Amino acid sequence: MKYKVISIMYALFALFIALSIIVFPQPVLEASKRGIEMWASVVFPSLLPFFIVAELFIAFGVVHFIGVLFEPIMRPLFNVPGVGGFVWAMGMASGYPAGAKFTVRLRQENQLTKIEAERLVSFTNASNPLFIIGAVSIGFFHDQQLGILLAITHYCSNFLVGICMRFYRRNTRSTTKKNQFSIKKAFERLHETRMNDNRPLGKVLGDAIIHSIHTLLLIGGFITLFSVLTRIFQEVNILFILSKSLGVILDFLQLPVELAPAFLSGLFEITLGAQEIALAENNSVLIQAILLSFILAFNGLSVQAQVASLLAETDIRFLPYFFARLLHGLFASILVIILFKPTYTANNNKETLPVWSQYITDQTSTIYVVFQESGMFITIISLVLFIILNIYIKPTHN
Predict the structure, then answer these.
(1) How many angstroms separate the CA atoms of 54 and 354, rounded?
(2) What digits encode the pLDDT tens for the residues 207-247?
(3) Which segments cross the bilayer (predicted)?
(4) CB 94 within 8 A of CB 51
(5) Taking 70 as the threshold, does the pLDDT of residue 292 lie above it?
(6) Which residues contact 66 (CB under 8 A, 6 or more apart)?
(7) SS3 of residue 73 by DSSP
């Protein structure tokens, strides 16, 4: 009976979406166009190089090399194998859902146990600096120092989540081999992995491109879907009703109730929520930073759906990841309050910015502008290449 009810609910939800598309064709078209443009101009070109390089690292044994070297660091800190260092670094550099993708790949290759994978994915699926500083802080708020504050709190709180999650099922015995630090052993593992992969170089490159673009197409579909869903919920006043309930919580926390609709949008889709918070009538940068830091850490239901889709390919459970997102949001919000004065207020004009801060924001802003101007072209060329490779190369499924 339980499964019949769930089936009926799924069917009714699909019917609701279909009818909403018919009733609100123009808003749905605008939302769909917005989602596709965001994916094609920024998300796709910014993630593609990292995905391809990561696939090559895995194929050439570089991940095994890193695993041996980082075992003495990752095991005591986060209770995961050394290969987790690769996932952590790539997750921070490329942004979500890269951490989930690489965790899934390592789990499929049995380099992680189920519990270790659940620990790892909980703190490696972070936002990248390009989005935090370029899109949110400079693009929406025109405030580069806010980006430095958000980035510091985002990654520091993510580290704290990793420390906390090391105690998750800590009595579970690890079945992965614990490597001792040895450069010689690391090179041996790299060579052994490369020799075990019988694919020629051209095949390796083709598979890396095909697998990467396939994942990015999945991500693009989720971004577009949630952009449409959010707009539909706005049109039928579902978001308005939910925002009223959320307003009660914000009022209890002594936060402005008028920011409830924007904050709720951010819980669905980060970019939309960040933009609405920037446009909301609230002059308190601290309050805006608290809400922004939470939705960046929460990842938004759009990103969480992408992660759930990737994790479904393995036995990795979604619930620990979701719990970690709430924990990340709590830590990030608290750190914003603690670091706001020393990081933002003390350096709130361009003349007093530290040299490293000015350099990071300038470079990030330049990269973001490049993606906005040429990202669509890069995406189109890559999709053409993807079609050609699919015709002439049959991808190897790992």
Answers:
(1) 33
(2) 888 888 888 898 888 888 888 988 898 888 888 888 888 88
(3) 6-24, 36-66, 78-99, 120-141, 147-168, 204-226, 285-311, 318-340, 375-393
(4) yes
(5) yes
(6) 57, 82, 83, 85, 86, 186
(7) helix
Cα–Cα distances (Å) from 3 to 8, 13, 67, 189, in that order, read 9, 15, 43, 47
> What is the Cα–Cα distance from 71 to 181, expressed in whole angstroms?
7
- Alpha-carbon span 230 to 276, nearest angstrom: 13
Q: How far apart are the C-alpha atoms of 80 and 119, rounded to whole Å?
A: 7
Instruction: Give residue-wise pLDDT tens across range 120-175.
Output: 999 998 888 878 887 788 878 888 888 889 999 999 999 999 999 998 887 766 65
Q: Give the contacts of 259 (CB within 8 A, at least 6 positions apart).
A: 250, 277, 280, 282, 287, 288, 291
CA 398 to chain centre: 22
Residue 139 or residue 260, greater confidence:
260
| Type of residue numbered 70 | F
CB 105 within 8 A of CB 58: yes
pTM attached to this predicted model: 0.82
The half-sphere exposure of 118 on its side-chain side, counting CA atoms within 13 A, is 19
Total residue length of the chain = 398
